[in-house]
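Dear Dr. H.,

I hope your travels went smoothly. While you were away I took the liberty of generating a structure for the chain from your last submission, since the lab meeting agenda had it listed for discussion. I wanted you to have the full record in hand beforehand rather than looking at slides cold. The sequence, exactly as received, is reproduced here:
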Amino acid sequence: MPISRAEHVGSLKRPAALLQKRSDFQNGQCTAEELKVCEDECIAEVVRMQLELGLTTVTDGEYRRTYFYDGIYDCVTGTRVVKDPPEHMFQGKMQRTKPLYGEAFDFLKKVAGPENVGKLKVTMGSPEWYHFRHGKYTYEPSAYSTDDEYFADLAKVYREEIQDLYSRGCRRIQIDDPILTCFCDEKLRNVMVQEGVDPEALLDTYIRVINGCVWDRPAGMVVGIHLCRGNVKPNREPFTWGPYDRIAKKLFNELNVDYYYLEYDTERAGTFGPLRYLPRNKHVVLGLVSTKTPEVEDPETLRGRIMQAAEVIARGEITRSLEDALDQLSLSPQCGFASHAPGFEIITHEVMAEKLKLVVDVARTVWGKP
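The corresponding predicted structure, in token form, is as follows:
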């Protein structure tokens, strides 16, 4: 699979017409079929935009979702909607009884055209999402007696979905994970300790869970993970702070994925130092372009930061040439442009397009192609 140098995380700003149509549907003012027609039209348009900009990663913008994690937990059996603990979310055994993203991928493939299938990427929420949020209230004891049982069924859902997507022609998936960065945040680690949770043991568990979801992926299926720091607060502040140093060694050497999408748009994410642990067979997508501010970044500054990251990798625990280190990098915005359907009002469609074009242009100057 050719390396994509001009990446993006997945979600894109929804057109006003789509937001209105989904609101109409939720209020019982239009049918599911009418909503789907609007989704299809908007997806076709946003795919054209990505291809015209020269992006080598193309998604459906997550236009069929309200939140980035939609499509798994709301589609498997055994669940019910709860607002907060102490209500248990899983009332019965979890099963995947139908494709989760397959139909959406089929439409994406159709509008992108056969010559662009290799550029297509499907994003999905992280498997530890609800466990971290709900803890012991994740499932009823009558459904699962242990976390291991729960995670085994969850991993089976992911593996089945990945196999199905592969059979449809998908070769790139990305897990959007806002949980792993919690282990970088000292305040959140302290909260875990106060609750009687060992942060390192829980991190080890979640790494095993993610690995269990992807261990038997078909040859040729590229798996990436986006370490999200939060992209929904009205003030545009992240949920988690702190550098990757706390988790980098385990992240790069124990997590069985190919690509790491790392947010590096603010100083609070720390330095590129943790990249010294990157093995030769892994790839990092540097999230240097912000989806939270309308100001367009300076191309020279971006190029300089990419070279700084490459130098750290070159001098890392496993030394390599600067050229080889640079080959293990790509560029992207730090997060999606609409992790929740409306996105940030301050980021317009025009700003989004300008920032995506910037990613393509900088990638071309650094690597010779996007």
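Two observations you may find useful: The chain has eleven helices and six strands. The chain has a mean pLDDT of 94.

With kind regards,
E. W.
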